[in-house]
Amino acid sequence: xxxxxxxxxxxxxxxxxxxxxxxxxxxxxxxxxxxxxxxxxxxxxxxxxxxxxxxxxxxxxxxxxxxxxxxxxxxxxxxxxxxxxxxxxxxxxxxxxxxxxxxxxxxxxxxxxxxxxxxxxxxxxxxxxxxxxxxxxxxxxxxxx
Length: 145
What we know:
- The chain is of the alpha/beta class.
- The protein has one domain (23-138): RbsD-like domain (RbsD-like fold, 3-Layer(aba) Sandwich).
- It has 5 helices and 6 strands; from the N terminus they run H-E-H-E-H-E-H-E-H-E-E.
- It has helices at residues 11-19, 35-42, 54-62, 89-99, 110-118; strands at 25-29, 45-49, 75-78, 106-108, 122-126, 135-138.
- A 6-stranded mixed sheet has the order 2-5-1-6-3-4, with helices on both faces.
- The termini are far apart.
- The relative contact order is 0.31.
């Protein structure tokens, strides 16, 4: 255990986050997301946190990961199939966590989300059973100037 670090940030997850560079993405996905297949096909690292919710994991990740400010978007959720304007409870939760840090959340069509997740540096699969409890984050920089 480390002081001031969420216990949800396992050694494997901390390594993945620390290994990311500016512009790299990480996906936090729910239990229904085809994470094993996407990770295998894309050659992406799969980290499993089966007892946790996606919102809790997002909050822990945001405690250590600087988000990108270079592009307009640095966080994406998956759109509800058949109703792109719907905001399911997990997405509302993600939006609140991101807005508290001054960031927005953009929604992607389901298959566009899968494609972007396949290009991520890592997939973190939670045990969240809520539909649409999936979010992508793009790493920014920590500057000394």
